[in-house]
Structures are given as structure tokens and as C-alpha cells.
Amino acid sequence: MTIKYIDKTSINTFCSYEQLKKFIGKICIWNFTFMRSAITGKLIEVTNDYMLIEMRDGRTMCAKLACINGFAMTKKQRVAAV
After folding, report:
1. Do 26 and 78 meet the contact criterion of CB atoms below 8 Å apart?
2. What is the spatial distance between Cα 75 and Cα 64, in angstroms, rounded to a whole number?
3. Domains (range + CATH), the chain
4. What does the pLDDT look like over 40-51, one tens digit per residue?
5. Which of 11, 18, 37, 38 satisfies CB 3.0 to 4.6 Å to 31 for a cystine?
């Protein structure tokens, strides 16, 4: 029998701060525990506790890392206007 020890600094074992840092500035599809359907948005900021996502209409959403059920990067990334 194998015993797994959970790191108490990371609440969510699905994704951590270090893993999400790679997706800053990328548009992803996010699936959260508190929403019925997935949303699409650009990851703006990630801390040890929460993250900020900019949605298509310009609003920002704050969510705890523990609320993430899953996410995937979109194939086509929008290019910002110059």
C-alpha cells in the first residue's frame, strides 16, 4: 500500500501556481466548480491563492485556485490590436 502525502501549501493538486504561470497572457477555456458552463478568458495574474481572468467583454474575474475543475488553451490565440 502506498501512502501519498499532500503538500499543505498547495490546496488544489490539479494545478498549482507554478503550473499556471506558464499560461499568463494566453486565452484558455476555464471550467470552475461554481459555474455551470465553461468560460473563455485570458489569464492576467496568478498568485498562490487566486487568479485574475479577463473575459471577452473586458470584465475581469477573480477565482481561487481551488475552484478549478479543468482548463485548456485555445488553438487560435487572438492577436491584440496595435
Report:
1. no
2. 25
3. 17-73 (2.30.30.100)
4. 999 999 998 899
5. 38
